[in-house]
């Protein structure tokens, strides 16, 4: 008796370097090519988002700039309108006050004159002028895009064949069996993901402040009355053993009436400052010529104080005051 058995199994593909072996229970291993597992290159590109959003930020910047300019123009126009309305409103104001003083330098209320002038309210009431003193802008822009594709595919083919036979050597004929089998499969998987975004913000720092305006000065006051004239004479020095021990000076004080005549019999007030004051027997009362002579002295105890000293001396008659600088 003789018997034989033959079985063959042949995959359609032979594994190469880098291939992936896919095992399925009960079936021969399948080969997935590496080329089938490679994903496509990324296609993310944020330039289109930048092209779309950039003009928007330019429009924002232009709108803010125009808004500042238009608001400043509106503020200025409002000031002009207010100024015109105030300029058309007239009022009477006192620009000068003329006071007549008697011979003693005291004001005479009945002879006081007020000089009036018609002016517009704008001279004293000014509209507030505002201006944008500071405007700063800061913008941030962020864009991005993500694109991802993945894919896996493979194909599997399996084939097998077998043959069996039996027989007798003494002339008996046996039987034989032959079988073939072929199995094919294909798999494919794909995933895609895409995302894009654009965001930004604008920050503005601005300061609206009033402008500085110049105001009109106070009315000028003019006094009409007696006049005082001060005339210092040359200073005199007293020495002892070659050292200056005293300096003195005479001051002639003349008081005149408003009409220029001598103002006699009035008392003046003298502030000698740091100096010693000496007066005649009549004191500070003017004589018939309207004159008073006063002497100022400065004692010098030692050489350390010998340097000349310059100070102001004041003479008053009522509201009239005159000042002269004296050096001793």
| Global outline | elongated
CA-based gyration radius: 59 Å
Count of helical regions? 2
Strand and helix order: EEEHHEEEEEEEEEEEEE
- Please give the domain count: 2
Properties at a glance:
Immunoglobulin-like, single chain, 2 helices, three-stranded antiparallel sheet, 328 residues, mainly beta, five-stranded antiparallel sheet, 16 strands
Topology overview:
Elements: E1 2-11, E2 20-22, E3 30-32, H1 34-37, H2 47-88, E4 90-101, E5 107-120, E6 130-167, E7 176-210, E8 220-224, E9 227-232, E10 236-240, E11 243-256, E12 269-271, E13 276-278, E14 291-299, E15 310-317, E16 320-327
Parallel strand pairs: 4-8
Antiparallel strand pairs: 1-6, 2-3, 4-5, 6-7, 9-11, 10-11, 11-14, 12-15, 13-14, 15-16
Q: Could you write a compact summary of the structure shown?
A:
With 328 residues, the chain is mainly beta. Helix content is 14%, strand content 54%.
Question: Can you walk through the features of this model?
Answer:
The protein is mainly beta. The chain has 2 domains: 1-11 and 21-88 and 129-215, no CATH class; 226-327, Immunoglobulin-like. It is built from 2 helices and 16 strands. The protein has helices at 34-37, 47-88, and strands spanning 2-11, 20-22, 30-32, 90-101, 107-120, 130-167, 176-210, 220-224, 227-232, 236-240, 243-256, 269-271, 276-278, 291-299, 310-317, 320-327. The strands form 5 sheets. Strands 9, 10, 11, 13 and 14 form a 5-stranded antiparallel sheet that branches. It is elongated and about 175 Å long. The chain starts with a strand and ends with a strand.
């Amino acid at each position: 008796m003789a018997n034989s058995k033959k079985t063959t199994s042949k995959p359609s593909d032979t594994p190469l370097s880098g291939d992936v072996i896919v095992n399925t229970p009960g079936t021969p291993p399948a080969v997935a090519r590496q080329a089938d597992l490679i994903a496509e290159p990324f296609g993310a590109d944020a330039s289109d988002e930048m092209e779309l959003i950039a003009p928007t930020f330019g429009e924002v910047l232009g709108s803010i700039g125009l808004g500042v300019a238009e608001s400043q123009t509106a503020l200025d126009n409002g000031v002009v309108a207010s100024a015109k309305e105030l300029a058309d409103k007239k009022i009477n104001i006192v620009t000068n006050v003329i006071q007549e003083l008697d011979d003693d330098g005291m004001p005479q209320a009945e002879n006081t004159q007020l000089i009036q002038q018609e002016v517009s309210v704008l001279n004293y009431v000014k509209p507030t002028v505002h201006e944008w003193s500071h405007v700063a802008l800061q913008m941030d822009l962020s864009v991005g895009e993500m694109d991802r594709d993945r894919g896996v595919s493979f194909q599997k083919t399996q084939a097998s064949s077998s043959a069996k036979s039996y027989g007798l050597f003494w002339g008996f004929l046996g039987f034989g069996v032959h079988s073939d089998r072929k199995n094919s499969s294909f798999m494919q998987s794909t995933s895609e993901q895409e995302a894009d975004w654009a965001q930004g913000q604008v920050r503005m720092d601005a300061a609206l402040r009033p402008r500085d305006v110049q105001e009109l000065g106070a009315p000028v006051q003019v006094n009409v009355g007696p006049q005082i004239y001060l005339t210092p004479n040359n200073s005199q020095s007293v020495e002892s053993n070659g050292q200056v021990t005293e300096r003195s000076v005479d001051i002639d004080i003349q008081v005149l009436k408003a009409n220029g005549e001598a103002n006699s019999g009035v008392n003046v007030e003298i502030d000698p400052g740091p100096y010693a004051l000496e007066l005649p027997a009549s004191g500070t009362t003017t004589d018939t010529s309207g004159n008073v002579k006063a002497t100022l002295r400065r004692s010098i105890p030692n050489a350390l104080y010998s340097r000349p000293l310059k100070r102001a001396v004041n003479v008053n008659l009522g509201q009239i005051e005159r000042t002269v600088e004296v050096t001793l």
